[in-house]
């Protein structure tokens, strides 16, 4: 593989991968000890090439698919999804000969609902940990809601607030292009983001719309994960930043399991303190 084809990632991406590694290991250990569980799967909706280049060291590091494949004990099955042909082919090459790996070269919003989630039904004594790690506003809300209502799937989800701010959550929302509004509606599930993302404030020439703080918008999405998608446990998301300290996205965890929430809270707290202590 040509190294220049790999994404160069910063400190907080490395943190995210460490969070995934720690939680996936704990999750697999717990699932392995439950004899009633027939299968516990790992799902990666935006899998990528499998490796990255660390900006700090310029060294190749494991991406989320390879992190998951190296977890002990192993998951029962791995579902890797990417729309890009080169990335899907690379994942197939890396996992060649493994009967416990399925690679899909499709849109995750379709393949998750039609092919993957049906393999992880609660009533079939199957469970799954699903990573939804896009670079833009994605996945569609119907995918997230389906995971919550199935009761068998836990998710890590990136809310790409920088994409939302750049393309949708403008100072004057009336100027936002219709396709961008459509993207936000698909991600949010409906148009209620407009109400939660803006408030009416008095101005010199009458009422003006003021954008809410990033964290308030993220917490509104958290409420949707609990109240509409039906996840019982959704800790406050972890802000993930760029080198200038600006929040690029919020990392959410959502589950039906109290133990999972407790583990993730501890992991989030640890890495948040580490980042602050090191000026990140």
- The coarse overall form would be globular
Helix content: 40-55%
Order of helices and strands: EHEEEHEHEHEHEHHHEEHEEH
Estimate the strand proportion: 15-25%
Summarize the structure.
By secondary structure, this protein is an alpha/beta fold.
Outline the secondary-structure elements.
Layout: E1 8-9, H1 11-32, E2 39-44, E3 51-54, E4 60-62, H2 64-69, E5 77-81, H3 85-94, E6 101-104, H4 108-116, E7 126-132, H5 141-150, E8 153-159, H6 161-167, H7 178-188, H8 193-197, E9 198-203, E10 206-211, H9 214-227, E11 238-241, E12 247-254, H10 258-277
Parallel strand pairs: 1-3, 2-5, 2-7, 5-6, 7-8
Antiparallel strand pairs: 3-4, 8-12, 9-10, 11-12
Please tell me about this protein's structure:
- The chain is α/β, with parallel strands linked by helices.
- The protein has one domain (3-167, 214-277): Rossmann fold, CATH 3.40.50.
- Helix content is 41%, strand content 22%.
- It has ten helices and twelve strands.
- The chain has helices at residues 11-32, 64-69, 85-94, 108-116, 141-150, 161-167, 178-188, 193-197, 214-227, 258-277, and strands spanning 8-9, 39-44, 51-54, 60-62, 77-81, 101-104, 126-132, 153-159, 198-203, 206-211, 238-241, 247-254.
- The protein has a seven-stranded mixed sheet, sandwiched between helices. It has a three-stranded mixed sheet with strand order 1-3-4.
- The longest helix has 22 residues, at 11-32.
- It is globular and about 60 Å long.
- The mean pLDDT is 92.
């Amino acid at each position: 593989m040509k190294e220049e084809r790999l994404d160069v990632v910063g400190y907080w991406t490395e943190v995210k991968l460490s969070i995934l590694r720690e939680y996936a290991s704990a999750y697999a250990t717990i699932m392995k000890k439950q004899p009633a569980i027939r299968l516990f799967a790992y799902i990666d909706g935006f899998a990528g090439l499998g490796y990255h280049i660390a900006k700090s060291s310029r060294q190749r590091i494991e991406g989320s698919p390879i992190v998951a494949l190296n977890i002990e004990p192993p998951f029962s099955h791995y579902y890797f999804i990417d729309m890009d042909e080169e990335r899907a082919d690379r994942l197939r090459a890396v996992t060649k000969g493994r009967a416990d790996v399925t690679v899909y070269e499709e849109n995750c919003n379709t393949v998750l609902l039609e092919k993957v989630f049906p393999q992880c039904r609660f009533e079939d004594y199957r469970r799954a940990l699903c990573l939804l790690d896009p670079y833009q506003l994605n996945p569609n809300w119907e995918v997230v809601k389906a995971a919550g209502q199935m009761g068998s799937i836990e998710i890590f989800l990136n809310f790409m607030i920088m994409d939302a701010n750049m393309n949708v959550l403008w100072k004057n929302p009336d100027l936002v292009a219709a396709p961008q509004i459509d993207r936000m509606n698909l991600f949010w599930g409906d148009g209620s983001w407009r109400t939660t993302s803006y408030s009416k404030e008095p101005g010199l020439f009458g009422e003006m719309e003021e954008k809410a703080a990033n964290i308030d918008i993220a917490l509104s999405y958290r409420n949707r994960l609990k109240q509409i998608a039906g996840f019982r446990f959704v800790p406050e998301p972890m802000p993930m930043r760029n080198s200038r300290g600006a929040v690029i996205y919020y990392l959410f965890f959502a589950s039906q399991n109290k133990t999972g929430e407790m583990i993730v809270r501890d992991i989030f707290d640890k890495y948040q303190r580490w980042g602050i202590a090191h000026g990140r």
